[in-house]
Amino acid sequence: MTSLHKPARSAAEGPFYRAVRNELEVFRAAARRGLPILLKGPTGCGKTRFVEAMAYELGRNLITVAGHEDLTSADLVGRFLLKGGETTWVDGPLTRAVREGAICYLDEVVEARQDTTVVIHPLADHRRELPVDRLGISLKAAPGFQLVISYNPGYQSVLKNIKESTRQRFVAIELGFQPVDIETEVVAHEAGIDVEPARALVRVADAIRKLDAAPLQEVASTRLLIMAGGLVAEGLSLRDAVESAIVRALSDDPDTVRALGELVDSILPMP
Amino acid sequence: MTTHDAKSPTRFRFLAAHLAGRSLDVTEALPGEVAHTDGRVVFVSAGRSVSEQRREVLVQSALVGAGSLDHRLVKMVRGRPNVARRYLALEGHRVLAELAPRISLAAALCPAGEPITSTADESLRVARGPKDVAPPPEWFGVIRPSRLLGAPAGGAGAETTTRDLRLEFGTTDIPESRDDADAEQGTASRILKLFENPLSSKSLSDFLNRLFGNSRTPSDGMAGGEMPVRSMRRVDRVGPNARPLPTALRFTADRAPSFAVGVGGALHPEWDVHKNRYRPDWCRVIDFPLPSAHDVSAAGVRHDEVLRRRLARLGLGPKVFRRRPDGDDLDIEAVLDLSVDLRSGHSPPEHIYLERRKLARNLGVLILLDASGSATESDPDGLSVHDHQRRAAATLALTLEELGDRVAVYGFRSQGRSAVHLPCIKPFGHRFGAGSRARLNQLQPAGYTRLGAGIRGAGEILKTGAGTPNRLLVVLSDGLPYDYGYEARYAEADARKALEELRTDGIACLCLSIGASTPTDALQRVFGSASHATAPALADLSPRMDELFLAALRELAAPKPRGFRPTRPRVCSGLQR
User: How far B463 CA lies from chain A's nearest CA (Å)?
Assistant: First the structure.
């Protein structure tokens, strides 16, 4: 649920991210000012990777918390635990980020209950402090602390939506699927395959994304393409890789799988 | 979603949609017909192999996507089969060659050689000219100008027209049937008219007016001028929000009061959209236990795991759990116990936290099942809408009961406004046992659908019987209200109004249309204000049933209209005072 990435500065290169628009500049500017950021975009379009790349570039720790519907404010802030007959306070991931001056990335924050998201309010405005009521203190955020939340408007429903008062504290960056050429490059790089099969994969994904009124809940994401590319790199044929990593991953309905298979078959190069 | 045969050409629908750039259906043509399209559906030749059908779909949908079958172009080849064939050969070749770089299937199938033409217009010009054109391969199919031009451009056209026609009947000009003559249109006025002398003063009729306390009949006599101003006063017009309360009916069964045998009833108002007012005490709604032979063999109810899991997630009130292994805060009492235990040499598990979770449900649900004759139309599997709805009701009731909610199941049907029946299948107090299940499964559709009255009646039962703070009415209906003098716009408006009333009273409503083929916009008109969903079977809705329930319950949080106070409009004339 929570992970701590120590940026490996010694490594030759950081996480690979290809910017499409001005998102790098916006993030850098917001980071200099310590402004919180809201990332929007469909599943698997590179939101997490973007944050990782930025944390690496800025040389800060990245603490990731995945949102789920039972996430309570204690899960974020911390709680008392019992250790050998005494209670000890254990910082939650958010408190740790506030103390260390790290980037705290709350992934899919909409999934969490709305009363939970309220604890980030004082951190996300000019106060930049985290009240910890169980300790009776208020922590001032260390320089370098930055809050990033992500949110997938695709799931949008009446129930899962960000509160207006939360939204309006954030600088919004919208990420989408990249243009064909850039996405091809990303898939080729990440999966370690040639440009040609990568281009075929992207073309398949593009066709699926543009399907009119398809009974699919989600379209093929860049992440799926990279997975398929990985299978290709391991020696599977392009068709088999697409079948397992994309077609069957997208739907359970045999009818839809068959129809997707026909579409994919006609687009992929003939064997 | 129904599973098609693996060989069925619907498997090409995504391919066709991709090539055409819009949604396109694929189906088999009649035996003996060659492949063609009408712009919305691609017909492939019947009984061919999959690969042959695939290339037929490829050409036809690529032609649609490239705009080669636009009305403008097709008109030029109408009635000239020879030109049409030459045009098809040229265009087919051209669009396949154009697709070849993107679609490898097109590249593999494209006829050899460069296409002669580069635009559709050029193809048409060459096709009409004298130049030799090789005939198209057989799998190109044909262009059918009559079908292409005959198909309406904007999708489901036929349905709209029939519905439009039906809507015209909904105007006020239609004389109401004998049964439904408006009781308020003062019957005495016709007699009054006999006393009226258009030349003299109206003292006599005024006197009689005083005597009978009747106001002017809106439809009789001439409007305005002739009548003194005071007789125009309409005191029975109360505020726009006022609605008549139902009048309870009392029955006496042999020597026992009605509630002892479970019969209840009331006269409910009905909303008249044309006059923009309520008709008080208009529908007699009666609920009674449904007698049936106990046949346990008919008591099978299908379980739905997904539905169960989804509905189990519905937590409506927060609850604090003590002595949990994990939680937000320490449970001081448990910590004390633990330290006592530790110091006295025990090592109990460290369950010392308080956890807050939304768990208290306190939900009462009434499932109202459409048992009218309109629900008898059946689908290809031989299951009628009624069967679908009955099964859905059984599964829902079973699941909710297992989850500890208070559930009741009622059917509803009507024969005119004086006989709206709510046969009780399972009242709130009873278990959903074999008897209730058998009753539900033996419920036979009959009669008509006076939806608004049914909803009001069920709401009344829910108010008095549920006994829980959260109340939900689930209406299972095909969304086609119809009864004597109850149709089209009038019926839709009344049903909508009934749902609004319930929500004002703090009862959530969820309308499910299962297995019915009612168009979505019709459902929108009937169920418009409430949460509603439609699906071929309950299982299609199960994965999001929790959201539907929550959305319905959440609507109650919306502020109520201000100044609302249900009052009984009293019919009295200003002349009486």
Answer: 27
